[in-house]
Amino acid sequence: MLIAGFPAGAFQTNCYVVAPAAGEECVIVDPGQDATEGVDELLREHRLKPVAVLLTHGHLDHVWSVAPVCGARDVPAWIHPDDRHLLSDPAAGWSGPTGAMFAGLELSEPDDVRELSDGAVLTLAGLELTVDHTPGHTRGSVSFRLPEDEIMFSGDLLFAGSIGRTDLPGGDYATILSSLATKCLPLPDDTVVLPGHGPQTTIGRERASNPYLKEAAPQAGPTRGI
Length: 226
Known about the structure:
By secondary structure, the chain is of the alpha/beta class. It is 24% helix and 27% strand. A 6-stranded mixed beta sheet has the order 1-2-3-4-5-6, with helices on one face. Strands 7-8-9-10-13-14 form a 6-stranded mixed beta sheet. Strands 11-12 form a two-stranded antiparallel sheet. The relative contact order is 0.13. The mean pLDDT is 93. InterPro entries: MBL_Glyoxalase_II (IPR051453), Metallo-B-lactamas (IPR001279), RibonucZ/Hydroxyglut_hydro (IPR036866). It comes from Nonomuraea phyllanthi.
């Protein structure tokens, strides 16, 4: 398994490329602000051919470069339908002064947009990625898992020591706690979490120390691999 990434733009949003190995096909996760050059460098370094872009949600800092990245290689973008409108209306994902700042920014959908659903298994680039709908940060937030490798791309659902904010349009605190309880806490402790911002962590580490997972725990089902 090859996973490489970098923090993109002023928001320092983690963008990842994922492939079975160097020299093979890959998927790109969350190409954010000014991510095009960094993506190109990773593809050249590891001799990768992208077949799709996967979006954990529609916020601008995660989708800023999706149209040029997809367009340059004629690949589709995958996003949950509840966040699809944010691809062409980025200001709708923000409120107050921040939303006003982005009001004049024009983005467009890639030519080929495909919609994600909860529980779907995407077979792409020799990978099998399970889609978990994890609303709370946005209505259409998802996480992507590689179950056999115990790896989770959590987007802005779960961070090391924290969770995504819920005060923006489409966010809801009770909903994100439910997503943490039903989609994160049942996973094995060894599951590696690759978040949308900040360093990687594990489910076990967050289960033991993250106050938001502790708050969500009463809603959780049985855990595995503990």
